Amino acid sequence: RQPEPSPRGAIASSSSQPGGKGTAPEFGIAKTPFHDMFQQNLLRWSFLQRQIEYWMDWYERRKNLLLGATVSTHNIALLAVGALLVAACWLPTRILVLAWTYSLFWEGLAQGRLMRKNHNTFITALRDTAATLWLDDDEKRARAGAWGPSTLLEEVTDSGVALLTLRDWIRNEFYEGRPMVPLRAIQRCSTLRELAQQVTWTSDRF
């Protein structure tokens, strides 16, 4: 009677196999709820980091302008304060408040235009890459040429683009190979607009 293999030997043999259960899971494919929660927290932190960097840059630019870090900014700040003083003496307060409110809306409009431009840049790169490398049918290439922000991600996968291929392309093209966007995050996107928003907010290329 041959001796039965020990549990430790069984675990070692299964981990040594190429497709065995003992192989370490690839980062970006959540195989346990803990990995999924960890990847979601990383994604939230990347969103928060981009927002913090934006507002810190916004505050730093205006602080340098108001405090006069250089001679040119000092002169500009002095002229701006003098112009506001003259405007406060001759113009009603409601007009100044409306002008300030209009400037806020104008800044939001400019930021929205920039976001839409980044979304279109990402979707255009996706269309060109899919038509060049992934799709081998003229009909599918013509269908891919009509992809836009409202295109469903399910339609993209039905055309023959695998989600793993899409995830690897996003990592190599916009994150220099870093696993910033996991597969589960791409699966949660329903349209290309949601996917573009996620990539443009977390990538340093935009």
Report what the structure shows.
This protein is an all-alpha fold. Helix content is 72%, strand content 0%. It has nine helices and no strands. Helix 2 packs across helix 3 (71-90) and helix 4 packs across helix 9 (192-202). The radius of gyration is 26 Å and the shape is elongated. Mean pLDDT is 79; it is low at 1-28.
Outline of this structure?
This protein has helices spanning 7-16, 33-67, 71-90, 93-134, 138-144, 153-158, 163-174, 183-188, 192-202. It is mostly helical.
Quickly list its features.
mainly alpha; 9 helices; disordered N terminus
**Which regions contain 5 or more consecutive residues with pLDDT less than 50?**
1-28
How many whole angstroms does the radius of gyration measure?
A: 26 Å
Number of strands: 0
Assembly annotation = single chain
SSE run:
HHHHHHHHH
User: What best-fitting shape do the alpha-carbon axes yield?
Assistant: elongated
Q: What share of residues is helical?
A: over 70%
